[in-house]
Amino acid sequence: MKKLPDKTVERLSQYRRSLLNCLANGKKHIFSHEIANLHHITPVQVRRDIMLIGYTGTLRKGYDIQELVDLIGEIIDTDEGQNVAIIGIGNLGRALVTYLQGKRSKLRIAAGFDINKDKVDRVYGGVQCYHIDQLEEIVKKENITIAVITTPADETQKISEMLVKAGIRGILNYTPTAINVPDHVYLEEYDMITSLEKVAFFVKKNSLTV
Amino acid sequence: MKKLPDKTVERLSQYRRSLLNCLANGKKHIFSHEIANLHHITPVQVRRDIMLIGYTGTLRKGYDIQELVDLIGEIIDTDEGQNVAIIGIGNLGRALVTYLQGKRSKLRIAAGFDINKDKVDRVYGGVQCYHIDQLEEIVKKENITIAVITTPADETQKISEMLVKAGIRGILNYTPTAINVPDHVYLEEYDMITSLEKVAFFVKKNSLTV
DNA sequence: ATTAAATTGTTATTTTATTAACAAAATTTT
DNA sequence: AAAATTTTGTTAATAAAATAACAATTTAAT
After folding, report:
1. Is the Cβ–Cβ distance between A177 and A154 less than 8 Å?
2. What is the distance in angstroms measured between the alpha-carbon CA of A141 and the sugar C1' of D4?
3. Which residues pair with B109 in a beta bridge?
4. Is residue A55 part of a domain?
5. Which of A53, A113, B95, B137 makes an SS bond possible with A91, Cβ 3.0 to 4.6 Å?
6. Cβ(A169)–Cβ(A153) under 8 Å?
């Protein structure tokens, strides 16, 4: 398979979620424009994404939802699934646990980590919380490959070094501080304040031009 | 001012945050490559962004941090600031309140909304929580222009219609369900599960090719 | 005083992502 | 049975974003 564009990967994940929804409602087939409407994008983009993963629908009947879901699964997921650690069991960490629960995903939150003694050794939404010092040990034991950093504090770079050392292969960083990781670790960063300021900017701009 | 690219707006917000940090540490000037290092991007991109907002540094001395911060503020912020509502005072909503506190931002979280009777009329991190039925009333009273949807549930489209009706001009949607809004409302959507699945995909891919 | 190094600002190029265009085939309508 | 419509798959065109290239200029080094 040729290299999938970043954005296509993101959209495939989203398609799958709404396709699972359709399946749950007893729907069997779907047209590109239906998928497009669910994600307010164009039907062409949907067809192009689907083309890129080598699936073909049937003319005038659309795509077989189950087949498409399965294929997206083959592309995105690993057979055994992947284990995720949440670093920082604050509000955001707990929100993530909630969001993932019941999503019959191949991603399993296998552990949480914190420095707060009150949180360590407790269970949050079914996730055991360990002290950050146990990181390496637990990452090995639970075969964790992915970490989500949700600490509001500014220890981020230090934490990321611990993660890399422990053998983590992908990091999703929700901290406002950007971090540096070696090439073999995939890094995705997202900053909520920036998103909010972006919305604010475009609201301001629209107000001016209207 | 010519139209700023989306991505430039995002980066300006991020630059400002680290520049404020520098200021707090007593730093007065900064080079493009220093800013670049803080955000692991290239110096060219930094210079280009700064060029687009019409600021010029001094050769061999870099950019005056205070001036740059002020200019970014002029571009992103409004003079009076903007008021934000959080829809859904769950974990994610509370995380946002925490993240914004003490960030001396022009964005003020003016109200929270929920349907849970236990949450209504309480104060979370300094933010008063109202029942969702009071939305229109409070939005007018507090002059709220921006809403962040952080409900995990699937009432999203209905909520977004309420927001539009109440006069909201920009929405940041953290729900996994995409929503439709009229053209005059700016919409930004972000899906945490998708980000996580994206990381998982690239971790898998790297494992295969290495 | 000359040369070398560092740094900005800007234009040009390349890459990535989106949208448009359209042929091919299945179905429906006339 | 022929024509019209719908829908896919794919190539071509456009737009957006990132990177490279490089002139201009200041400072530092020789």
Report:
1. yes
2. 64
3. B84
4. yes
5. B95
6. no
